């Protein structure tokens, strides 16, 4: 099967006519992966030839759209992410006692104890760093897809997986400190509640104070605690998600125009199915990462020295099901995130803000 380069129509604008073969670009509904065309049908300026018209692909609108989608998505689903973090960090006591029975119980108790704004602890860190995270991931993935594309315009599935994995590896430069600080804020309420039951008081801390303390005591390395586990999760997710989405998207019905793109609803379903599966697939790695990055533990909870130690102790004291804690939350979070991203890219929000004319061909 010939490689059909993913190009988002919202990122393209027509320039002068140029001779060339008709390409059949396929839209990536999230806009996370296809930035510009390198399939051999482009002009020297990096455009894509569609029906004799060369379109220029823009990286900046892609990044801006990614940031906008990320910020809106975080705002909508962050309470579920907080619940996921608390469920994953919660360890079962010697007599089987635990603070939260399930996702709904955690949500109810957290809201009752900390209120609406308590459900958004740590969201500021995510909102601040989501755009640079997306910028690194988008740029890296596009670069590696370009490098791995063969001279005849093919990109084998193994190369797609490698490109996605390498993009995930670069992404952790921003993701690790972002997740580290976010987790401290998200889990603070749980740790404080358990300390209160034991008659103790835990000092409140902001993400800024935590970052300053880590930098003062351990230097920049302190912000990268758990980087190995973060890398394992993000690289594995990218390896699973991107090829699976490409294959699912290729199977669906196409639009009736000459673009060769999958219809909107099929692309959305492909992204939803691929994202949900990948999220559950890497959930054990997410549990390990979350537990390693939690700097403060509740009384009686075990400390972990590294990935192997975390796996061993979790398996010994809580069993294999502990690695799927918060898995349902992760899968539920995928739906609105993908829906929001889909709409932001489809509507071309960044292009409208930047005054770039778009063309839905």
Number of domains: 1
The CATH architecture would be Alpha/alpha barrel
Task: Report on the biggest sheet.
Answer: 3 strands, antiparallel
Strand-residue fraction? under 5%
Number of helices: 11
The strands making up the biggest β-sheet line up spatially as 1-3-2
* Secondary-structure element series: EEEHHHHHHHHHHH
Helix amount: 55-70%
Any idea of the CATH topology? Mitochondrial carrier fold
> Quick one: how many beta strands?
3
Q: Low-confidence parts lasting 5 or more residues at pLDDT below 50?
A: 1-57
Give the overall shape.
globular
What are the key terms here?
phosphoprotein; transmembrane; Mitochondrial carrier fold; 3-stranded antiparallel sheet; 361 residues; mainly alpha
Description of the molecule:
The protein is mainly alpha-helical and 361 residues long. It contains eleven helices and three strands. The chain has a single domain (54-354), classed as Mitochondrial carrier fold. It has a three-stranded antiparallel beta sheet, with no helix packed on it. The radius of gyration is 22 Å and the shape is globular. Residues 1-57 have low confidence and may be disordered. It is found in: Mitochondrion inner membrane.
């Amino acid at each position: 099967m010939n490689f059909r380069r993913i190009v988002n129509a919202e990122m393209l604008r027509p320039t002068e006519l140029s001779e060339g073969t008709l390409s059949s670009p396929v839209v990536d509904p999230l806009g996370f992966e296809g930035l510009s065309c390198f399939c051999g049908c482009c002009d020297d300026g990096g455009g894509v030839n569609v029906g004799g018209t060369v379109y220029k692909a823009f990286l900046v609108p892609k990044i801006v759209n990614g940031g906008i989608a990320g910020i809106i998505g975080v705002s909508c689903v962050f309470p579920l992410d907080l619940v996921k973090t608390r469920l994953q960090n919660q360890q079962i006591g010697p007599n089987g006692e635990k603070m939260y029975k399930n996702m709904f119980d955690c949500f109810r108790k957290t809201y009752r104890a900390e209120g609406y704004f308590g459900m958004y602890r740590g969201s500021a860190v995510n909102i601040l760093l989501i755009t640079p995270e997306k910028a690194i991931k988008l740029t890296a993935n596009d670069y590696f897809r370009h490098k791995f594309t063969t001279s005849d315009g093919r990109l084998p599935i193994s190369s797609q997986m490698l490109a996605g994995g390498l993009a995930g590896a670069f992404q952790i430069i921003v993701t690790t400190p972002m997740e580290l600080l976010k987790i401290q804020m998200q889990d603070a309420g749980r740790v404080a509640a358990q300390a209160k039951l034991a008659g103790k008081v835990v000092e409140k801390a902001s993400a800024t104070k935590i970052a300053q303390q880590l930098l003062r005591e351990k230097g920049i390395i302190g912000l990268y605690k758990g980087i190995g586990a973060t890398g394992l999760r993000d690289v594995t997710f990218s390896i699973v998600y991107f090829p699976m989405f490409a294959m699912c998207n290729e199977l669906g019905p196409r639009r009736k125009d000459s673009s060769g793109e999958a219809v909107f609803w099929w692309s959305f379903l492909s992204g939803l199915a691929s994202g949900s599966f990948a999220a559950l697939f890497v959930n054990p790695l997410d549990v390990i990462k979350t537990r390693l990055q939690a700097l403060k533990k509740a009384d009686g909870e075990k400390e972990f020295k590294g990935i192997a130690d975390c796996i061993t102790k979790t398996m010994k004291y809580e069993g294999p099901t502990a690695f799927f804690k918060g898995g349902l939350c992760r899968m539920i979070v995928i739906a609105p995130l993908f829906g929001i991203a889909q709409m932001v890219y489809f509507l071309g929000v960044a292009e409208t803000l930047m005054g770039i004319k778009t063309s839905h061909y």
